[in-house]
Each structure stands twice: as structure tokens, then as C-alpha cells.
Amino acid sequence: MQTLHVELGDRRYPIFIGSHLDIQHLLKPYIQGKQVMIVTNDTVAPLYLETYKKALTALDKVTAQCILRDGEKFKNIENLNLIFDALLASGFNRDCTVLALGGGVIGDMAGFAAASFQRGVNFIQVPTTLLSQVDSSVGGKTGINHPLGKNMIGAFKQPSVVFADMNQLSTLPPRELSAGLSEIIKYALLGDIEFLAWLEGNMPKLVAGDEQALAEAVYRSCAHKARIVANDEHEKGERALLNLGHTFGHAIESYLGYGTWLHGEAVAVGMVMAAELSHLMGWISTEDLARVKHIIQQANLPIYCPEIPLDEFLSYMSHDKKVLDGKIRLILMKKLGHAVITEEFNVDYMKQAILNNQKKGE
Amino acid sequence: MQTLHVELGDRRYPIFIGSHLDIQHLLKPYIQGKQVMIVTNDTVAPLYLETYKKALTALDKVTAQCILRDGEKFKNIENLNLIFDALLASGFNRDCTVLALGGGVIGDMAGFAAASFQRGVNFIQVPTTLLSQVDSSVGGKTGINHPLGKNMIGAFKQPSVVFADMNQLSTLPPRELSAGLSEIIKYALLGDIEFLAWLEGNMPKLVAGDEQALAEAVYRSCAHKARIVANDEHEKGERALLNLGHTFGHAIESYLGYGTWLHGEAVAVGMVMAAELSHLMGWISTEDLARVKHIIQQANLPIYCPEIPLDEFLSYMSHDKKVLDGKIRLILMKKLGHAVITEEFNVDYMKQAILNNQKKGE
């Protein structure tokens, strides 16, 4: 087991990363009150809910659960309200704990509920997907979608502890494993060329679900994100680097309708578009661009999106949250393994990068 | 005009208190982005919305408005969502400002929306009732009600500036003016015997709506609250003193149904009950108790609540948020003008204090 600390002053918290973690022992110091609400979904509950209930009962805690329907389309205000209903119907008070047991959707909703219930209660995260282990479990972004935009409503809420158990990835569908690898590749591309080389060597193991390799990839990814978040908790600057591929990706997700493509899949194509634009700007070489595409393909991820009319694609991009005063800021690669936040790019090249990475007729 | 600063480090903000404030001039430094969403209600909008829209337009801002229905019963998740709908339908982004123009309900809802929209945008408060000027405009507590409890869902969100204009109180119904005086009396009772004497001398002016006297009372009240909040932003300790009368008051409000009695009216009777219990405990004299009742009556506030079965009253009290691990903590007066947070009181005396201040047969 490895332990990583996210350094956020008095909200500093550890991430425990390993296989078959001793949850009962590790949970103990992080729950002061007696009441624990486990928020999970109907896919994860049959697999892991009982394990956590048992561990908590052995710690003399009173548990209750809120089992939501699985899927991004349920990440809305109505389902958020089901968590509040459960907390209040169970008579939970302000010294309770909300434990998120599931992927990014569960983490985002449970985290926002923990941030808002009684104006803030203790929050523990048990991410059960690779994506949520490397992405949403670090940094405290929580929230829900609105019909007019993704993650439009939420809070910054840091957990008191995160458990990333590789053993739980054994039940993850291969497509979701790949979607998680997409975000892992992102960390290499945005700031760690050495990690990219490591991934190129270890991708076969990662795709095969090797727990030791996965733990190492999760550790390195979380360490990257933790360093960036510690410098810029509320995304005033550097933290925006984590959106590499995301403005393009959000457009793909929005056009296709949330849930059609996985977030990681859309981000994969988004990273290819960002790399292609960086190449067209003369910042990365043909070989660099080929390396980006290759590592993404090694992870069984798409490098093309379906055909999307350019004007619609651009319209979705400009609805992205990262747009300030109408100006699109993109995360591009000044060189491979070194991303920057910039508004200084050629718009025609941007359009070309989008069009070059669509598969016509699909 | 007087200016009071709420000292909260990098979230320090000013409260401007006066009559006929020069809004356009004063607002300017507190709005960086171009977009301002005015959240108000259908009572306040016809009176003051145009004034604020004009001032903002003159500052070259783009304004939009969200006009909610007036009343505590609309302080729920459905109406909160109307604010998000308005923000997104207007294409507002993360550098927008949410301006609350109204009483406590509007401030609480607009503040929670500002805390949650895009995980936090700029927030400005223009409290238009006496209660909200002295209570909800200081301290950053925002939120909504849930069918199972009041203010159960929310956030701590500090405004960047507050405008308390006494002139706006001229349109306030007398009953609401009295409800605001209830919270003003609270500050005197919990920690300022000299202010109590001032109130006893000035209550006739206050009840008559004298703007100069009101401004002084608002300034003193906000200064009290600001000092307490600066010491204890997240209510770990001292801030709970502000709940003097509130645990009793919440029981009255809950039993009668929110909106039947005004919050300040319920708190008034709650303060009498707290004073009576303090007297039964031997902490304050018969004369002190009489002074408490007298100042409350001077403000045209009730000192009795309708008859409520004791077991129901106690049950509502124990549902109050300030109950930790099943123990009721009350704010009682160790002496007049000096309140404490305590679990150490005689439960039979508490019951007696409740029963003594009910009007039988009502």
C-alpha cells in the first residue's frame, strides 16, 4: 500500500492506494460521529456495499445507504435531493459522515451533498473506477449537471480520506478501464515525459488489469494532480492544465448526448485534437503527434470522434465553463510533456484539428 | 453612511449602512465581470428592481433577473433551481455576479446559488428587510429548507459587499419591522447590556421607523455579529450564541408551519423562554426577566406562543440542527447581557419555561 498526501493546509488528506486495503483499520481515524451514509449506485451496491457496512458496523457506527441509479444521466438535482431525503429521513445530523462508494458520478454527487448538507459534513471517498481514482478523488471538485451544461452546479469539497483499491477494478468493464487510462495518459502529456515513456512500456499490463502496474499508475497520476491542486485549489491558474483535451471532449460529449461516449473516450479524442493543433502551431513534431495517438490507441481508446458539424462543435466548445468573456482558452502542448493554458492560437488551425480527427460518415 | 468591515481574512467585506445610498458609485469596485443576475421576489421587484438595473446598466453591466415568489415556503430546491435555470439560460459564466435584492429568504437562496453556480461566483447582498440587514447579511450562512427541516441544505458563502439602506425599510410592513427588532434585541441580550439600555430608550423611535435610529441599531447589531463570526466562521463554538431563542423558536415555527409566524416573532418568544429558564436556574433575577419581556413587548412582539403539546414541542426542539448526538444544547443567560452555550440545565425547568410562555386555548 502507498499513501499520498494532498497538501491543502488544514484540509490536508491522505489517499491510500493498494490492493485489498484493510478498510476497517484505515477508516477508523477519519470518522468522528456515529452516523455514516453510504452513497452508491445499483451497479456497485451488490458488489461492495456489504463489505463497507460490515466494516463500519464493526467500528460501532450507525450506517444507512442511498442507492442511486447508475449513470451520468442521473447526476442531476433530482437525484441529489434523494441523498438529502435519505440523510434527513435517517435523522442524520451535522457530525455525520457521507461516504461515496462508486465512480465519478457518485463521488461528485455525494461530495456535493456532503458539502451542502447542514452546510458541510465529513466526506470520505471510495472511488471504484480507475477514472475516479485518478481524477475526481483528488481536488475536491463536486457537482451535478444541468440540462444546459455539465458540472454547472457544485462545490469545492475536500474529502477527509480517499481509498483507491485496485482490487475493485477487477469488476470494471474493459471500456471503463480504458476511459480511466485516458486521464492517466493526460497527466503524462501535460507535464511528465518520463511518465509517458513508463506508460508506453507498461500499457499492455495496465490494459490487462495488472494490479501492481495500476497502483503505480494511479499513484503517479494522483501525485501529479495533488501537486497541481495544492498550488491552485480553486482553479485560478495552473489547475486549468488538468483540462487538457476537455474543451474538445466536452463538445463531443455534449453533441453525442452525455452517456453515449464515456468521458475518458471523449477526452482521448480531445487530447488528439489538442496535440494536432499544437502540431499545426509548430510546437510539437510529427513524431510527437504520432506518439500521442499511439499511446491512446494502446489504451484501446478512440482517436477519432464521429462526424459533427463544425459550427455545432464550436458552439458546444464555447459553452464550456472554461470560456471567459467569450474567449476560448485551450490547453495546448508547447512541447510533448509540457502543456500551457493559452488563448493565442490560430482559429483556422483549431478548426482543422477538429475536422482532421472526425471519422466521416459515422 | 457608516461602513463596517466583517473581518474574514481574504474574504473580508464591507457593509455600507445608511439612507439613500449612492448604489451606482458604491457597487462599482465589487463587480469585475460583465454579467449580473439580480435575484429578487415579486414583492420587492416592483419597488426596487429598476433602480438596481439602472445603476448596473450605467456601470456598463449586462443584467438579468430571476423573480421568485415571496415567502419562506418557496425557499426550497425547486425555486433554487429556477435561479440556476435563469443563470444558464442567460449564458452566464463563472465571472458573473449574483446580487440578492430582498429579505432573508432571497439572500439565503441567492447566496446558495452563488456558492454553487460554477462552484462559486461573486455574490452581493442588498437586504431589504430589517431582519436580513442585521441577521443574514452578516456571516455567510446560506441555504434552503427541506420538508424535514429548515436550512438543512446550504453553504457558507461570504458576499463581497452588503448594502443596508434604511430608506428601503419605509416600505416594510410594521410586523416585519418588529420581527427585525427581535434579532436586534437578541444582540443586546446575548452580550451587550449597554445596548439593551440604548434600545429601551430608543424603541419608540425604532418602531416608528426613524431612519437614523434604525441605522444606529443596524450598525451595532452587525458589529456584534461581525465580531462573533470573525472569531468562529463555521460555528464550531462561540457563533452558536447567535442562536439565543432559536431552538425554542424553531419548535414554534415548525409546529405552526413555516410562514404562519414570522421568524423574528418565534425567536422573540424563544428568548422569553430562554430567559425564563435562566431565571428558574437562578442565573437572572425576576427584574431581569421582566426587562426581557418588556423590551420585547416594546417592539410589538409576542411574549407567548399558542398552546403546543409539550411532547411535540420537545420533539421539534430535538430535531433542531443544534442538537449534537441527541443532547440539547441551549443558549441561556448566565446574567442579563451575557449568554452561554450549555447542556447543563434542569430539564424540568426547561419544560416549565416552555409551558409558562404559552397562551392556553390559542
TrEMBL record, chains A, B:
Compartment(s) where it occurs, according to its Swiss-Prot or TrEMBL record: Cytoplasm
Record Pfam families: DHQ_synthase (PF01761), DHQS_C (PF24621)
GO biological process, one term: chorismate biosynthetic process
GO molecular function, one term: nucleotide binding
Coiled-coil region(s): none
Entry EC number(s): 4.2.3.4
Positions annotated to bind Zn(2+): 183, 246, 263
Limits of the 3-dehydroquinate synthase C-terminal domain: 180-323
Domain (3-dehydroquinate synthase N-terminal): residue spans on this chain: 66-178
InterPro entries linked to this entry: Dehydroquinate_synthase, DHQ_synth_AroB, DHQ_synth_fam, DHQS/DOIS_N, DHQS_C
Principal place of residence: cytoplasm
Annotated Gene Ontology cellular component terms: cytoplasm
Cofactor binding mode and count: Binds 1 divalent metal cation per subunit. Can use either Co(2+) or Zn(2+).
UniProt keywords, alphabetically: Amino-acid biosynthesis, Aromatic amino acid biosynthesis, Cobalt, Cytoplasm, Lyase, Metal-binding, NAD, Nucleotide-binding, Zinc
EC class of the enzyme, as a word: lyase
Source organism, top-level taxon: Bacteria
Cofactor(s), by name: Co(2+); Zn(2+); NAD(+)
Family named by the database record: Belongs to the sugar phosphate cyclases superfamily. Dehydroquinate synthase family.
PANTHER family hit by this protein: 3-DEHYDROQUINATE SYNTHASE, 3-DEHYDROQUINATE SYNTHASE, CHLOROPLASTIC
Stated role: Catalyzes the conversion of 3-deoxy-D-arabino-heptulosonate 7-phosphate (DAHP) to dehydroquinate (DHQ).
Protein name (record): 3-dehydroquinate synthase
Species of provenance: Acinetobacter nectaris CIP 110549
Gene: aroB
